[in-house]
């Protein structure tokens, strides 16, 4: 423990709330994507650019900006990037044209680095025996932010219009940005690693060659995250189509199924500790494949859709957890950079899934989306089985 002050319980909770707010911004679009497309008069394929470029910009931002955390205080970076998110949301809120809305969403993705800086900041200010507890609290904040964003956006848009969602999001980010300087105390020591910025970036690539499993774990999670986004974007378009006739609030309520992961993920992680992450990942992938295979056959009724959506939400986060377990047990000196590689690959998958999900729906309807998800899940399962050899 260094000489910086320890966090109080109230500060820990406040940081978790901040993590929820800064994470939620990328997920408001999920249930309301059809309404936003109609407002700007663009096709379902073109509206996919909004979440796609947001996710790709997030991957670029993590790669370009997160390494700065080894040289500049986490506090200063978090405040600066939160301000960038606030400005980006303001652009989206006020945008009268689709191009400006896309630009705002892309900038928002690029500046969404705070969720990855807050755990590093907190880890320096808690006793070692409480590190897991505080890290879990921040992770719960992230999950809660995603959940509330997807449920709340659907309900608000149905009754107040989609733009009200972004007015509220901008106000929340402004409040967080103003609160962070008081919430996050200074006094951090300068990093001991004084590599140049280009050297910090380039040091990632030799690590990939030395730890080859990070690439396959990243690819598995890219497929997992990409299909998660594609399913929910396609589902939002399908449920609000004339064929089904539901409102955005229904899409939001369905997104509430993700709450199961808050309960299930810690238990799945404990089970993976016993059986090993690679074998557990195979089991989770097979269960998820079964759930995705049921999407189309059960999509005629909102009630029958609950079963495959419940299954995929149950085990999807477990695939991410087991993927991280494959490299978080390695040398502490390289874990941050390996995490950077993993997260960048994940969000590239999210970007591709965002565009593919809406484009395929636009061309082939819900049946095409389900077929695409089936292929992705088959590939994910095959990669998970292949990756088992790294643990032998």
From TrEMBL:
The keyword Lipoprotein does not apply. The keyword Repeat does not apply. Residues 11-389 form the Major facilitator superfamily (MFS) profile domain. Coiled coil: none annotated. The chain crosses the membrane at residues 12-33, 45-65, 134-153, 165-184, 214-239, 251-268, 280-299, 339-357, 363-385. Keywords: Membrane, Transmembrane, Transmembrane helix. It comes from the Bacteria. PROSITE patterns: MFS. InterPro entries: MFS, MFS_dom, MFS_trans_sf. This is MFS transporter. It comes from Qipengyuania mesophila.
């Amino acid at each position: 423990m260094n000489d910086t002050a320890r966090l109080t319980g109230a500060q820990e909770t406040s940081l978790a709330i901040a993590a929820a707010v800064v994470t939620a911004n990328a997920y408001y679009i999920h249930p309301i994507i059809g309404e936003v497309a109609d407002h700007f008069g663009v096709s379902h394929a073109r509206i996919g650019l909004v979440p796609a470029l947001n996710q790709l910009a997030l991957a670029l931002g993590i790669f370009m900006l997160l390494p700065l955390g080894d040289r500049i205080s986490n506090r200063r970076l978090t405040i600066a990037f939160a301000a960038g998110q606030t400005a980006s949301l303001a652009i989206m809120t006020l945008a009268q044209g689709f191009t400006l809305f896309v630009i705002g969403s892309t900038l928002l993705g690029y500046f969404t680095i705070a969720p990855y800086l807050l755990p590093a900041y907190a880890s320096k200010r808690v006793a070692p025996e409480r590190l897991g507890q505080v890290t879990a609290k921040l992770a719960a904040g992230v999950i809660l932010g995603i959940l509330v964003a997807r449920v709340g956006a659907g309900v608000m848009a149905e009754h107040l219009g989609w733009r009200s969602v972004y007015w509220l999001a901008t106000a929340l980010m402004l409040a967080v940005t103003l609160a962070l300087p008081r919430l996050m105390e200074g006094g951090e020591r300068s990093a001991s690693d004084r590599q140049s910025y280009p050297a910090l970036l380039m040091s990632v690539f030799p690590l990939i060659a030395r730890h080859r499993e990070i690439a396959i774990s990243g690819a598995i999670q890219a497929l997992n995250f990409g299909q998660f986004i594609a399913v929910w974007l396609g589902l939002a378009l399908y449920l609000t189509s004339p064929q089904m006739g539901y409102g955005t609030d229904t899409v939001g309520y369905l997104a509430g199924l993700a709450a199961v992961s808050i309960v299930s993920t810690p238990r799945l992680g404990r089970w993976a500790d016993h059986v090993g992450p690679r074998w557990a990942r195979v089991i989770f992938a097979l269960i998820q494949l079964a759930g995705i295979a049921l999407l189309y056959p059960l999509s005629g009724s909102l009630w029958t859709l609950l079963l495959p959506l419940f299954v995929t939400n149950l085990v999807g986060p477990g695939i991410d957890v087991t993927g991280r377990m494959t490299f978080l047990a390695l040398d502490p000196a390289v874990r941050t950079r390996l995490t950077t590689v993993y997260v960048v690959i994940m969000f590239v998958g999210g970007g591709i899934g965002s565009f593919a999900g809406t484009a395929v729906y636009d061309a082939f309807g819900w049946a095409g989306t389900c077929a695409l998800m089936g292929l992705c899940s088959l590939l994910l399962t095959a990669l998970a089985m292949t990756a088992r050899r790294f643990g032998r």
